């Protein structure tokens, strides 16, 4: 069941924000096109918060070791990470962002 995290217009473009939904840390990012993405907030290479990293194009880069994760699939695009982070469905209702805390399946 989707959980309301707040107004979409309070999410800054190309800047990640950390939210916790039902105990799951999630990085929320609004890309340059205004699309809001939600991916797991913990880097799979180390126990590092991805929301403290850098948004570039359609990726979120871990600040500690430089692994970049695709916002749409959660897949790592660079080492040292080689495992993807989970991706979560985002919906916008009446200007508010809702995240489903159940990771969605992403095709390989």
Can you describe what's shown?
The model has no long low-confidence stretch (mean pLDDT 94). A hairpin with a 2-residue loop joins β9 and β10. The strands form 3 sheets. This protein has a 4-stranded antiparallel β-sheet with strand order 2-3-4-8, with no helix packed on it. A 3-stranded antiparallel β-sheet has the order 1-10-9, with no helix packed on it. The chain has a 3-stranded antiparallel β-sheet with strand order 5-6-7, with no helix packed on it. It has a single domain, classed as Rieske Iron-sulfur Protein, CATH 2.102.10. The protein is mainly β. 0% of the residues lie in helices and 38% in strands.
Could you write a compact summary of the structure shown?
The chain is an all-beta fold. 0% of the residues lie in helices and 38% in strands. The protein has a four-stranded antiparallel β-sheet, with no helix packed on it.
Structural descriptors:
108 residues; mainly beta; Rieske Iron-sulfur Protein; 4-stranded antiparallel sheet; 3-stranded antiparallel sheet; 10 strands; 0% helix; 38% strand
List the topology elements.
Elements: E1 3-7, E2 17-21, E3 24-30, E4 36-40, E5 54-56, E6 59-61, E7 68-70, E8 87-88, E9 90-93, E10 96-99
Antiparallel strand pairs: 1-10, 2-3, 3-4, 4-8, 5-6, 6-7, 9-10
Number of domains: 1
Question: Please, how many helices?
Answer: 0
- Looking at CATH, which topology would you report? Rieske Iron-sulfur Protein
Helix and strand run: EEEEEEEEEE
Rounded mean pLDDT is 94
Q: Provide the gyration radius in Å.
A: 13 Å
The poorly predicted ranges are: none
Give, in spatial order, the strands making up the sheet with the most strands.
2-3-4-8
């Amino acid at each position: 069941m989707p959980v309301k995290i707040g107004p979409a217009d309070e999410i800054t473009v190309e800047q990640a924000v950390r939210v916790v939904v039902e105990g799951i840390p999630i990085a929320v990012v609004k890309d340059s096109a205004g699309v809001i993405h939600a991916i797991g907030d913990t880097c799979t290479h180390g126990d590092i918060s991805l929301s403290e990293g850098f948004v570039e194009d359609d990726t979120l880069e871990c600040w500690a070791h430089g692994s970049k994760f695709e916002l749409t699939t959660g897949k790592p695009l660079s080492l040292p990470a080689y495992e993807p982070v989970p991706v979560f469905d985002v919906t916008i209702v009446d200007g508010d962002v809702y995240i489903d805390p159940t990771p969605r399946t992403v095709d390989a």
